[in-house]
Amino acid sequence: MANPTLLILPGDGIGPEVMDQVKRVIDWFGDKRGLAFDVEEDLVGGAAYDAHGTPLHDDTMKKALKADAVLLGAVGGPKYDNLDFSVKPERGLLRLRKEMDLYSNLRPAQCFDALADFSSLKKDVVAGLDIMIVRELTSGVYFGEPRGIFEEGNERVGINTQRYTEGEIDRVARSAFELARRRNNKVCSMEKANVMESGILWREVVQKVHDEDYPDVELSHMYADNGAMQLVRAPKQFDVILTDNLFGDILSDCAAMLTGSLGMLPSASLGAPNADGRPKALYEPVHGSAPDIAGQGKANPIACVLSFAMALRYSFDQGDEATRLEQAIEKVLADGARTADLMGPEGGTPISTVEMGDAILSAL
Amino acid sequence: MANPTLLILPGDGIGPEVMDQVKRVIDWFGDKRGLAFDVEEDLVGGAAYDAHGTPLHDDTMKKALKADAVLLGAVGGPKYDNLDFSVKPERGLLRLRKEMDLYSNLRPAQCFDALADFSSLKKDVVAGLDIMIVRELTSGVYFGEPRGIFEEGNERVGINTQRYTEGEIDRVARSAFELARRRNNKVCSMEKANVMESGILWREVVQKVHDEDYPDVELSHMYADNGAMQLVRAPKQFDVILTDNLFGDILSDCAAMLTGSLGMLPSASLGAPNADGRPKALYEPVHGSAPDIAGQGKANPIACVLSFAMALRYSFDQGDEATRLEQAIEKVLADGARTADLMGPEGGTPISTVEMGDAILSAL
Ligand SMILES: CC(C)[C@H](C(=O)O)[C@@H](O)C(=O)O
Ligand SMILES: CC(C)[C@H](C(=O)O)[C@@H](O)C(=O)O
């Protein structure tokens, strides 16, 4: 049988540096665990723009659609800030999400024991935190039409459209309920049904999917503003949070920051399963391209490595191997290995990106 | 000269209880400081729906438009959850905002020294926190058309429209810059210009207003998701945050929760100044109607009292009297008076809503 294929898109900023460590980890699983992948690499974001004048070349798009999983580093940087909207690095990522139809974005916000002191929140509020945000990723105001800046009378008006069909809500709701069953069986769905009709439809469809097919999962609904408050006040009340594209963007970043260590958080973006049960999938760290430290060898590769662990679990049905990798990382942290972003109140000498890669490999 | 007029709309849940204490404070300023107001009272939200079948009667709307300032308690409650969207309690509030054209919503997130332990954040992260969110309140996705739930093929689609004109952005930006000049002279504007064209226009207009008329104010721009993170990570980096209606809803609640004491936070919603320089204005606490404790005499009236202090400052040019009231409240807190919501880790016996009113009056 042919090896499964991985498309690697390191992207911009610290993307390439952290991805280098992931490649070592991938090789390790091929050598030591008999999990060989056919790996291809390509450009995305500013790197693609520099080479081709577009943040995602059509050929790359085709490769992504064919690959069994895509691993992405990060996109964007100040160099590209003044580019036209249509060719900004972000458009490359958004095109991947849309054309791969990756409607379910899984963003764990997990607080690592060894790092509980890093949070700006009190330790007892976040220690042991383990929530999963399921964010709809292919629709809503990110993609709705009409959109643009138009002339109206003698001034301009900026317009975007929030738009959700029943089918779009239904499918992402299912993915949240499925996930909850494998976790603590609780879903809290967030919208602004008190203000937006799209939120009313969202609430109604989520409730219907629940009542018809997931009555065993505990479901609650919360307005998104209250959701932001509750995340800050008492995040451990949540298990799975289900929300739309824009609310998910903000709430998942808020949740991520609760853990205090953004350099630790992976994400998975999943589409519909294909014939062999494997979903279209893209994995990427939650952190961005961090242009301020790019090229200095200080970036923390863990979020990107953990994104590969998510790939093992969600794309390749290798939950045990994913756990092996996650445990290696916990060990590394427990042993005190710290990149610069993980320098806590206690101080210490940071290790480099490569040294963190070394540590992970030796823990494996 | 006639007394200035106040329209009081206690609303639902704990609204009436907390407003009762505000009325005592208003009387005190009339008796002791020669600041007499002509006070009228009316219904809003569920209370108005129960009486008239609408969450805001046209007569009330007229009174609000005529009043020099409106004080509102809170709207909403589970009793009204199943009402049609068009008559939900929230619609009453939204109609007031829209028809009074209250485009600039000021939401201070301030951490009171005596209460710094209440925050779920570490004390050093929030002690002394004093930021002001300026939220656009009359446009954006809250009011944009088209909106609704429509049939499309064989399914339904929920649609809302995010919409900002240059003029709408310009005027709220000005109010943020004006405020910043009276504070620490810094504005951070938040949107999603990397994803939404309305955000691009927002950023451009804010920058233009700055460059033309407020070059002395320090201006920065931030994506709203990063804004949520930064609020959690290091909120004291901000002075004034300027943002749109929907982002403002979420970010201001997030900011409010950083302080740990929602029962303490007031807000002001201001429109254009009229001939005598007084803006159309509505003042309300940030907390909601808290149906779970309504009618039990336990609610904290401070946020509502502080909303009246904002009225003194922003509507009646009585900054000194506002400060007098704010200082009385700080004294009450320093003396240890605590309603149930302010029972911290150290415990103690909570006082009632009325007792807190008593304490404020005697501190005055
Ligand atoms: C880079 C940007 C387009 C993106 C988004 O807004 O979705 C990012 O913030 C994210 O959350 O993945
Ligand atoms: C009650 C509701 C309509 C309102 C809003 O969404 O604006 C509230 O959350 C607020 O922030 O004042």
UniProtKB/TrEMBL annotation, chains A, B:
GO terms for molecular function: 3-isopropylmalate dehydrogenase activity. Its main location: cytoplasm. Substrate binds at R97, R107, R135, D225. InterPro entries: IsoCit/isopropylmalate_DH_CS, IsoPropMal-DH-like_dom, Isopropylmalate_DH. The keyword Transport does not apply. PROSITE patterns: IDH_IMDH (PS00470). It catalyses: (2R,3S)-3-isopropylmalate + NAD(+) = 4-methyl-2-oxopentanoate + CO2 + NADH. Belongs to the isocitrate and isopropylmalate dehydrogenases family. LeuB type 1 subfamily. This is 3-isopropylmalate dehydrogenase. It comes from Sulfitobacter sediminis.
